[in-house]
Task: structure prediction
Amino acid sequence: MESDHSLSPDAQKTPSPTPQQPQQPQPSDCTTTCHNCGGPATLTPPPCFPSLSPPPSYIPIRYPAVNLPPSSPSQQQAIILSPVPHAQKVPAVSLFTHHFQTPVKQIHSQSDIERFQNSESVANFLGFIVALCESIRGRKISDPCHQSQTLLSIVSVLEALIQWVDEIPPVQQSARYGNLSYRVWHERLEEQSEALMRRVLESDDECDYSPAIIELVPYFMDSYGNASRIDYGTGHETNFGAWLYCLARLGLLKEEDHQGVVSRVFVKYLELMRKLQLVYCLEPAGSHGVWGLDDYHFLPFIFGSSQLIDHKYMKPKSIHNEDILDNFSNEYMYLSCIQFVKKVKKGLFAEHSPLLDDISGVPNWNKVNSGLLKMYRVEVLGKVPIMQHFLFGSLIKW
Result:
């Protein structure tokens, strides 16, 4: 016998059983009848709700520990089936014919994300990230590398931003997150962003790169968090990667700079962001909480896992060895990230970082690296809440 769970006014009264059927037990909160025969329904109906309010979806407070973060089967399948990105040469632009424009937001819905995911812009940007990974593969942070004048200028700019944190101490306040002094720091960044950008662009005096300032400054400004919300997350980190990608498109960062971009520039950027996070207590922006890799970062895990590929002694499970973390975290970015997580989070590692704990069970770093690259495409570049703030101009086209 079929049952109908739509509750009509007549269905609010307990019906009498028909002679042909034995009486069915009725729930205490609501009842329903079969529209075919008028008898009681054979299935227990759900609780009564107002006609205009659908039943709420049940969301557990704590998900069980699994090998992937809690997401829909389609999202998990998307990560598994997503192809591993491959390194690509950055397409260069001609300063003489290129028309720069102020980048704007373009992503507003899931259909926009799908269009973005299938675009050449994503392929080129991810190709740049993979090229950076390959440049640092099997190398330590301290290993010698080519350092162009542009790369040195970027490092000096980041060192200046670190110095500002010392000059703008946090104010005393009762709130745990979001120290208001961060807004003072960010205001100084906004005031001097164009001057800082000229320091980078003028490192190469062969060409006039000043027309590109209108397009570079917005990515640079969005790389260090949001002043209104006083937060920081993987979207801001992606903006820093986009800014470096734009410099590569202009020809200011070349292939021989890639190793230095990771071991000098990105390491210095990570130092700055950790200082901002600790001193100004930045709120995690769009954090997955206990189910994220980290409250703030993703790219250093990708670069760091590439460093450790084919290492003779250190395996993914080595993150649980405190001696290894103490002695090698200054040379390997992945270990540095793990050590920082253990520093700022209390309790058992498997409880506050279950995803990182699960990754430690992967047999080798090659699988870790390829899996993180696929996960970055789906969980960061494929999420509307993150990418709705991303900007598109002439260097990263919509």
The radius of gyration is 27 Å. Residues 1-31, 43-70 have pLDDT under 50 and may be disordered. The chain has two domains: 1-52, 92-392.
